[in-house]
Specification:
Two copies of one chain form a homodimer. Chain A has helices spanning 11-23, 34-43, 60-70, 88-94, 106-124, 156-167, 175-183, 193-204; strands at 3-7, 27-31, 48-52, 76-81, 98-102, 129-131, 136-139, 144-147, 150-153, 172-174, 210-213, 217-220. Chain A is of the alpha/beta class and 223 residues long. In chain A, the strands form three sheets. In chain A, strands 2-1-3-4-5 form a five-stranded parallel sheet, with helices on both faces. A four-stranded antiparallel sheet of chain A has the order 6-7-8-9, with no helix packed on it. In chain A, strands 10-12-11 form a three-stranded antiparallel sheet. In chain A, a hairpin with a 3-residue loop joins β11 and β12. Chain A is elongated, with a radius of gyration of 21 Å. Chain A starts with a strand and ends with a strand. Chain A binds chain B through residues 92, 98-100, 112, 115, 118-119, 122-123, 126-130, 140-141, 143, 156, 160, 163, 167, 177, 180-181, 184, 186, and chain B through 88, 92, 98-101, 111-112, 115, 118-119, 122-123, 126-130, 140-141, 143, 156, 160, 167, 177, 180-181, 184, 186. The structure holds a DNA duplex (30 and 30 nucleotides).
Chain lengths: 223, 223
DNA sequence: CTGTGAAGTGACAAATCTGTTATCCGGCTT
DNA sequence: AAGCCGGATAACAGATTTGTCACTTCACAG
């Protein structure tokens, strides 16, 4: 049975949601503060976290950031007053799964919750996150990179290149190798796409993450 | 220890490769005909199949097609004379992992083999193929769809939409639902992107795969 | 210090992707 | 039969992605 964590400071709403989800057949844990919510979220695996943006202690954004840094595969549904709708894009960018504005129609929220949980269920069997040491994860679905809590949007090529470098982190990858594996080009010398794309990656990362090995190729720093 | 299957009719070359791979520490199975190779490939799990394009009985393309239809996650390295380099794009499109032209430098082939095997090793821990009933698979890395042996290139959006439909195959998905889940649009009515993208998918698939449910939404045929 | 070749960078053009709009089609209702 | 409505489709424009090229910067050898 799916397990939902509700983080909401307003008692009425918290109790309402708890009852509603429970009635729908979910197992529910509720938290009234950001700190308590974070503790619960980190302590156990939840299928969905319903998180209010406006909390007494920590800001919802903060909770979201910390939570996703620790569990990049967590699904978080952000709940927020219409006045804060402007933050919508921001939190979705940060990795939230969905955003619902308060006040909401019960059925509407319920539908959203069901949707997000079902989703996770079917995808969860094939993990979409490739763990790659320290704080780095590749998110196959979003095609982006989570590196120490920061979510970096990558293009298709950038992603493939990054994936390859990550798999061999610490080892040197020759241009030839990268051309063959990332671009599928077997022979052709006489292009500097690799250089260009390494440059583009560096621009999106801490620029000292990818090291140049003169006359050979590139290497991603081991950690 | 990784297991390689070599399918090559010319005895000298077959023995040479067998010895080379064995010396490199791999377990090797060799087959001299397409039929024998196919049988071996379907009978056991290999980490890499090295396949000659020019075989006495079946064409290499044929072997590749049948093999990938049955095991879409198989890694196949195509070996072929320079004269056939024109087929390169075609076989890579069909899902081959790599292409090496004959005659080749031993070390070169060895490097390619190592690369493809290592690759598979690291990705294999997180399966990149989502099985979805009958002959359909979603390949998260290539962002494409394998449907009864045919590999269909999809754009990012098309892929996400297709993934959603596949997850719910047989059930109807409302436009709203698709908008929310695939596009992340919560409210906005007044767009027909969904219709447009369903159209684009239909153009790439057997056009009767996606069914219209009037006044409701779309449904992917159950099988 | 200087010359040479390797690597980095900015600008650009082509290709692709995305979403909108306008129009067309086909079935249903009246 | 005519009108209407939901859905299909073609064409388009803007955005993004991709790879190339020319030029700059940098590291090392002499």
């Amino acid at each position: 049975m799916a397990h939902i964590l509700v983080v909401e400071d307003e008692p009425t709403l918290r109790i309402l949601m708890t009852r509603m989800f429970r009635d729908a057949g979910y197992q529910v844990t509720a938290a009234a503060t950001g700190a308590a919510g974070l503790q619960a979220a980190l302590g156990a695996q939840h299928d969905l976290v319903v998180l209010d943006l406006m909390l007494p202690d920590l800001s919802g954004e903060e909770v979201l950031r910390v939570l996703l840094a620790a569990r990049p595969d967590a699904r978080v549904l952000i709940l927020s007053s219409v006045a804060e709708v402007g933050r919508r894009v921001a939190v979705l960018d940060r990795g939230a799964a969905d955003f619902v504005a308060k006040p909401f129609v019960n059925g509407d929220l319920m539908a959203r919750v069901r949707l997000r949980i079902r989703d996770q269920g079917s995808f969860a069997t094939n993990p979409t996150h490739t763990e790659v040491g320290d704080g780095a994860h590749l998110d196959l679905h979003r095609r982006d990179l989570v590196i120490n809590g920061q979510r970096v949007q990558l293009s298709h090529r950038e992603f493939t290149l990054m994936a390859h470098l990550l798999h061999r982190r610490g080892e040197v990858c020759t241009r030839q190798e990268l051309l063959a594996d990332v671009w599928g080009i077997a022979f052709d010398p006489g292009t500097n796409v690799v250089d260009v794309y390494v440059g583009r990656l560096r621009a999106k990362l801490a620029s000292d993450t990818i090291e140049t090995v003169r006359n050979v190729g590139y290497r991603l720093l081991a950690s």
